[in-house]
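Run log // design_07
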């Protein structure tokens, strides 16, 4: 298997389910060390649970990869404490943060098993989190 990301550290928001989960698993398959950030909310929004992120971390570790879960909310443009904690966690446990990926943008309409997807109200994580993380890093 190719190791395109060997020894790189990636931080992926929304990595507990859906496309974020798939990003996390693929980066791990490619040799990256992964910070799995997820609030564990329901697909339609609201709620919080650590289970989804921990399950992805367990799956990565079971396959021989390195991963750590993070549950900080990085959507608040006015308060970057959560994003800063997430990056510091990457540095302490995975030796630095080199790549970032924000994947939350859509949710299935009509609950589980829905055949169509709808875009939720604008999700603050998608446009602001990457900009804030890059800005904080400078």
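design_07 sequence
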């Amino acid at each position: 298997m190719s190791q395109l990301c060997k020894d790189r550290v990636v931080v992926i928001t929304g990595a507990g389910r859906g496309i974020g989960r798939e990003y996390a698993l693929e980066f791990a398959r490619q040799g990256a060390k992964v910070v799995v950030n997820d609030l564990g909310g329901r697909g339609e929004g609201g709620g919080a649970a650590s289970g989804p992120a921990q399950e992805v971390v367990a799956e990565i570790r079971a396959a021989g990869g390195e991963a750590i879960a993070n549950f900080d909310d990085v959507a608040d443009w006015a308060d970057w404490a959560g994003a800063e904690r997430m990056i510091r966690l990457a540095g302490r446990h995975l030796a630095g943060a080199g790549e970032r990926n924000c994947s939350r943008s859509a949710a299935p309409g009509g609950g589980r098993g829905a055949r169509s997807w709808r875009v939720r109200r604008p999700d603050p994580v998608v446009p602001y989190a990457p900009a804030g993380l890059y800005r904080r890093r400078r």
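The two ends are 34 Å apart (CA to CA).
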